[in-house]
Amino acid sequence: MLPGLVTALVLMGQRYSLESRNKAVELALDYAELQNLAVSSGATMPELLDKFKSVGVTSVAVSEQLLGDLVATGQVSYQERSSQTGPLTVVRVTDRALAERILRTLSVRLDRGMVSPDPTTLNGKVPSAFVVRAAPATLNGMGIGLPPDAVGLVKRSGLGVVARLQNHPAMTSEAIAAAMSDMRRDGIKTLICAGEEVLGFRGLIENAAEQMMSSGVYYGSVEFAKQRGDSGMCRHLRGQFIRVHSIPSAEMAGMAPSTAIERFARSVKERNIRLCYVRLFESTGDDPIAANAAFVLGIRREITGAGYTMGAAHPFDDTRQAPALLIPIALSAAAGAVLLVSSLVTVSAAVQFGLLLAAFVALAGLTVMGKHNAAFIIALIFPTLGVIRVFGPYLGREITGSFKHPALRSSSRFVRASIYTLTGAILIAGMLGTRPYMIKTQQFVGIKAAHLLPLLVVIFVMAAGLPMMNQPMSAVWKKLRANLKEVVSSPLFIWQALGLMFAVGIIGFALLRTGNDPGIGVSGLELKTRAVLDKVMLVRPRTKEFLIGHPALIVGAAFLFARRRAIGLPLVALGVLGQVSLLNTFCHIHTPLALTLLRAFNGLLLGLVIGLAVWWFIGRPIVSATAPSALETDEE
Fold first, then answer.
1. Which of 278, 315, 483, 572 has its CA 20 to 30 A from that of 210?
2. Could you give the angle at which helices 550-561 and 593-614 cross, rounded to 10 degrees?
3. Residue 523's pLDDT is what?
4. What pLDDT, in 10s, does the model give residues 125-165?
5. How many CB atoms lie within 10 A of CB 448?
6. Exposed, middle or buried by CB within 10 Å (0-12, 13-18, 19+), for 213?
């Protein structure tokens, strides 16, 4: 396994270097919200911009003006007419500069001939009224670009501008090109689409992505927002975008500032977010400016305290893996598969070589079809290998004699099993450590299956009486069938049924909480516990590991060594969850590598401590009460 392990470690080093070079986080406020704050507080916009700049804000998001908004404020008026060719709208604008903007924008965004007169024939003379071959309802949702006064005000304050452009059913490639040209002219580098659709949805997404890349504009993908077309836009941009986190205003209304601060900080530290789009609190007492400034300052302190800097966000650099580097990783994974088989039954060297060759060819083929396929197989092999290789000899048969210090023995075995699991985790982290996985345009697939299948394999091994070493395969098959038949035909006692239901409930709950879209949310108590663990341990470990899986494996193995199989076997099976969760931690490539390593270590350490405590205060008294002789050697 060594060649693949070394290769994966080298690739992980490259990923760490890539993450270390991208530490700038952009903190953006919304221009419209700042305007509302100016009205409620009596402050001027320049004063507000200077104030928030001093507490860490780096940019302001300015939304595109819509014709409907200008109609609502009286700057534009409509007069609808009918004709044989369809609805006509007379657009009247009193301000000459605004009329010029609207006429130029509409002539670009709509097909030629839909706007009259044609602005190219006016020789600089802009009429106060013009005719558009469209209904007022259609025109209302049409954007005319960013307001120049707002852009100028933000730039004069020394802050960056984030453009918020609106998609429209009448959007054309020419309109997208004009919008990118305007952004380039104004020195604006970042675009976050407004509304429920990305720019160019549906048929022009690829064109919009190409226009952004050629113009040097960075697209901001807002996580959890689920804008239509976002995934397609990110795919066409090939990694040239920025991940954005924002909390909707409706959600902010019922959220404590400390909770929002923690959420923004966690998004940066744990999910490679590089732009925080911060919504202000609308009701903040007698001094809303001071309260919101303290809120923004809290976000900045949490982010910079984690080793990041405040500045303009930019995409992660690209990572390129030579296909040849994946060969030793596939070979090491194949060796793990052969080792798993040889831990269950005795096979000759020739058979092992044949299995190694077949597994290598299969894994290499899966890698060619998609690295996530091979990663999934690795995720099945190594947690299972760790439990079977280390605890296998004690699963299928009754232990004879007494083991000295069962808890210490189970702890050392737990560490050994975790090393096997971490080997697989390193192989996956090296294989998937590329930009698409770092920014979540691609993800590890099959998380729930990767949690469940190793557990089922270990349960099957227990039921089948495996491992069976130094026996011919004919004898192995015969005993295996007999053992399974005995398990199926054995009566199920009430206490066993209750225990089974309890175990199924725990496993089902853990599986529902697993994955990119978990089916069960997090309770308030758990959120508070997570916050405490984050403060105490810098990075909170995963609950499935330190509170369920790792302690169950340690205590279960200790019961096995104390000759209490009825208690030990179910706990060892439950302990598989900790091993698969440990490996799954490394499958979250969008989480920075340093944080992943610390999270895994914290989970192992805390799980070990809890496991030993449970054994000492609960497991050991149970064994002593039922059979003191089982622990006689412990007293020596």
1. 278
2. 40
3. 63
4. 778 888 888 888 888 888 889 999 999 999 999 999 999 99
5. 15
6. middle
Reduced to 3 states, what is the DSSP secondary structure of residue 140?
helix
Please say whether the dihedral angle defined by the alpha carbons of residues 109, 115, 118 and 122, taken in this order, is positive or negative: negative
Instruction: Tell the burial category of 407 from Cβ atoms under 10 Å away from its Cβ (0-12, 13-18, 19+).
Output: buried
Q: Which residue has the tokens 């308030």?
A: 524
SS3 per residue for 364-421: HHHHHHCHHHHHHHHHHHHHHHHHHHHHHHHCCCCCCCCCCCHHHHHHHHHHHHHHHH
- Tokens 């294989």 correspond to 431
If phi > 0 it is left, if psi is from -120 to 50 it is alpha, else beta; for residue 431 that is: alpha
φ, ψ for residue 88, nearest 5 deg? -125, 145
Distinct helix (H) and strand (E) counts, the chain:
27, 12
Q: 331 CB contacts (<8 Å, ≥6 apart)?
A: 3, 4, 360
- Of residues 442, 422, 423, the one with CA closest to residue 432: 442
> How far is the C-alpha of 578 from the C-alpha of 291, rounded, in Å?
43
Residues whose CB falls within 8 Å of the CB of residue 636, separated by 6 or more in sequence, listed in order: 404
Examine residue 3 and say whether the peptide bond preceding it is cis (omega within 30 degrees of 0). Answer: no
- Give pTM, 2 decimals: 0.89
One-letter amino acid of 228: R
Q: Which helix (H) or strand (E) holds 278?
A: strand 275-278
CA pair distance 329, 371, nearest whole angstrom: 11
pLDDT tens, position by position, 227-266: 999 999 999 999 999 999 999 988 988 899 999 999 999 9
Burial of 528-560, coded b for 16+ CB within 10 Å and e otherwise, reads: eebeebbeebebbbbbbbbbbbbbbbbbbbbbb
Question: Rounded to whole angstroms, what are the CA distances from 580 to 269, 370, 394, 463, 560?
Answer: 23, 22, 20, 20, 21
pLDDT for position 399: 67
536 vs 602, 606, 611, CA distance in Å? 11, 12, 20
Of 219-223, 462-466, 501-505, 561-565, give the range with the top mean pLDDT.
Answer: 219-223
